[in-house]
Specification:
Layout lengths: L12 H17 L6 H32 L10 H7 L5 H13 L4 H9 L4 H11 L4 H16 L4 H8 L2 H9 L6 H5 L5 E6 L5 E6 L2 H14 L11 H13 L10 E2 L2 H4 L6 E3 L4 E2 L1 H10 L25 H10 L16 E4 L15 E4 L1 H9 L4 E5 L5 E5 L20 H8 L1
Antiparallel strand pairs: 1-2, 3-4, 4-5, 6-7, 8-9
Helix pairs in contact: 2-4, 2-5, 3-4, 4-6, 6-7, 6-8, 7-9, 11-12
Organism: Actinomadura fulvescens
GO molecular function: endonuclease activity
InterPro entries: DUF222 (IPR003870), HNH_nuc (IPR003615)
């Protein structure tokens, strides 16, 4: 095998990244050898190198996160940058961000990941476990989980250990206490909610027999499999059932059907759901007879609900129209649900340019609403043929860079396209 010799110690970080990118590009064009044994050996080497690259990537992400650089690009968080600009799925973006934030506290994991002696899977699993711990408990937790990994436990089993890391650390430190249910007794029901750093929470508690009967009677019917294709386990279905109860979805479900008044009075023109699915006119009328009807009145040209400059806050009726038009925030790449967004005056109420009229309003998450106000020169606004507004956050002045993770048949350089269009 031919060796390639280069003085890497004198190269800058940028030069090394360029070299790694060039090697990856060339390697991706090569065909795999015919030998299975050779492929296995090469795959193991490449996987180790990839894990080391993940260590370097974590360091870069950590700096981006610490300096809040993403906010200059119209992104509310580092995780949104990973998802929207680097093309990562939500779970992978969260995993990489957690690793980047926790590695400075994990000295052994950081060293072993950088040298290729610990895989990315183990490192990410340990980082996820210790994010719920304070600095005093982080080191013993790292020791416990690394020992489990060195003993041959799979990353999945190490993750299960991580789920009870508080108890393991307490036992390690000799400060374990009786379980909370034993200390509280079994007469009164109790539930504790502990928040995680990623916005989720952990539930733990005890229900007495009476409350258990209520819980079973409410959740059990909702936690049944939705069909033969429902591959969720009981725990996942129970969580979905609880969410449904908390949201009131077990009592009534609201379905928005959009239709012209003529359809309700006998015309054959179909209606449609919010996602564009057509609904036959006869079915629209049947739904209207068996369900509550909340009319959304439109004027000529399907332009509804004008309030002008006399009112700044959109009315409930206007908000219902906007939630029908927009599933998410109007900013491209932002996945904040529409019902959690704020009503935004497209041309800016403070400037006196945008009345509170439905064709001058859209939905925008709170963060992007404020960012749009403070960075108007970096927000490109377009209006589609169906009357919806689309916001696109532009990069800072003088910077053009293509987004990765997009198919080549789309814009070859979307950043440049955006700058030219602006």
């Amino acid at each position: 095998m031919r060796s390639i010799v280069a003085d890497l110690s004198s190269a800058s970080t940028a030069e090394l990244v360029e070299a790694a990118a060039a090697i990856a590009t060339e390697l991706a064009q090569r065909s795999a050898p015919d030998s299975g044994a050779a492929c296995m050996e090469l795959a193991e080497k490449l996987a180790s190198a990839t894990d080391q690259a993940e260590s370097a990537l974590a360091g870069l992400i950590a700096v981006v996160d610490r300096t809040a650089e993403t906010k200059h690009w119209g992104l509310p968080s580092t995780q949104a940058w990973l998802r929207c600009h680097l093309g990562m799925r939500e779970g992978r973006a969260k995993e990489r961000l957690t690793l980047a934030r926790q590695l400075p506290r994990l000295q052994q994991v950081s060293k072993q990941l950088a040298t290729g002696t610990l895989s990315y899977g183990y490192a990410a699993t340990i980082a996820d476990a210790v994010q719920r711990l304070g600095d005093d408990d982080c080191a013993p937790a790292e020791d416990i989980l690394l020992r489990a990994a060195s003993d041959g436990l799979s990353a999945g089993k190490v993750a299960r250990l991580g789920n009870k890391i508080h108890d393991l650390v307490a036992e390690h430190n000799g400060t374990s206490t009786p379980p909370e249910d034993a200390r509280r007794g079994y007469e009164r029901s109790w539930v504790t909610v502990s928040r995680s750093l990623d916005g989720g929470c952990y539930l733990k508690g005890w229900l007495n027999p009476e409350d258990t009967a209520i819980l079973d009677g409410t959740l059990a019917p909702l936690a049944k499999p939705a069909g033969t294709d429902d591959r969720r386990d009981l725990a996942e279905r129970t969580a979905a059932a609880l969410s449904s109860v908390l949201a009131g979805g077990h009592k009534a479900t609201r379905v928005t059907v959009i239709a012209d008044l003529e359809t309700l009075t006998g015309d054959d023109k179909p209606g449609w759901l919010r996602d564009g699915t057509p609904i036959p006119a006869e079915q629209v009328r049947r739904l209207a007879l068996t369900a509550g009807v909340s009319p959304l009145l439109f004027g000529p040209g399907h332009v509804p609900l004008y309030l002008g400059h006399t009112v700044r806050i959109a009315s409930p009726g206007q908000r219902r129209v906007l939630e029908t038009l927009y599933d998410t925030c109007a900013v491209q790449g932002c996945e904040t649900p529409g019902f959690l967004c704020e009503v935004d005056h497209v041309d800016g109420w403070a400037l006196g340019n945008s009345p509170t009229d439905i064709d001058k309003l859209t939905l925008c998450c709170g963060w992007h609403n404020r960012w749009k106000h403070t960075h108007p020169h970096q927000m490109q606004i377009t209006k589609t043929n169906d009357g919806r507004y689309t916001y696109r956050a532009l990069p800072p002045d003088g910077i053009t860079r293509p987004r990765r993770g997009r198919p080549p048949d789309q814009a070859a350089n979307p950043w440049q396209d955006e700058r030219l269009a602006a």
